[in-house]
Amino acid sequence: MPHSLVESLSGCLEFHLNYQQTKVNQHVLNINQTWSISMNLPTTMKIVEITVPGGPEVLKLQDSNVPVPQADEALIEVKAAGINRPDVLQRMGLYPMPKGVTQIPGLEVAGVVVAVGEQVQQFKVGDKVCALTNGGGYAEYCAVTATQVLPIPENLSFTQAAAIPETFFTVWANLFDIGRLKKDETALIHGGASGIGTTALAICHALGIKTFATVGSEDKVEALSDLTTAINYKTQDFEQEILNHTQEQGVDVILDIVGGSYFQKNLNLLKRDGRLVIIGFMGGRIGKEFDLQKLILKCATITGSTMRARNSQEKAQIAQSLHEHVWPLLAQGKCLPQIYKTYAFSDVQSAHACMEQGDHIGKIVLEMNA
After folding, report:
1. Measured distance CA(92)–CA(52) in Å, rounded
2. Enoyl reductase (ER) domain: which residues (predicted)?
């Protein structure tokens, strides 16, 4: 990271930073009134490393170099980072990062911009932002493609903002883009108490869309009662319950994080022209045999999707849609992320253990200065 700042001749307060150990990695940073913030950037930072595949105990704090932002990136001083199911799978060795991407876990952060690449115009040093990362969120500093960065609404804290990107990007892309959910339609959200689930239910509720949700306890049924009609799948047949509630009609869109074990029931619940979007496989990766004739007669669409496989252009488009359609709702205090529990950055092992227990309702967040 920078150890000196040399004022450029442009007269626009642009500076060249000489990065330690990498003289070729010089970047012109666009710095406005808050340029002094970047003068004290350290050369090293704390990160969470997955030492070997395994349980939460394999997560260790280590020292690493502060990343150098590329021309299209913003460097964020991380104040909070969200915990997500893909982080757990990555830690277990079941969901590796794509080639060329940092192995540091963490898919969403909130913090303050401390440097920007020369192509970045939409953000400046000092801006409070949240971001969908390609990895690297479990760190004191994170470099993120600027088109995946969004401003934090004034009424949200860093902790709340860190709980937004991964789930909001995922829900919007799958429920509204791929699933084409409309305001006059009905949706079923499996895993309703998860981060994805609570986000989907909150957005739908804010938009006036009728929903159902499956959950695994009566406490979760009660917790979601203001947002949806929740069904305890452990004590009730969710298929029959939803058919009863919909006069045997079923639903238009199903967002499924469970996978294999729910496949036939999902198909039974889809209306004509219904859409099933599968984004997880907590209930199994292999689907059982299902009735192809029913699929054909219903003219149903079945799609699998993952955010990790999307390129930067696709993620940028999702960010633009969120800023247009959801950010105004957040600013009004609607569809706010539901925070279950926060942990200090140094207690990341406990945060992962909490995620794996499955009792949480909403999001789990790491706080850097807790």
Report:
1. 8
2. 54-366
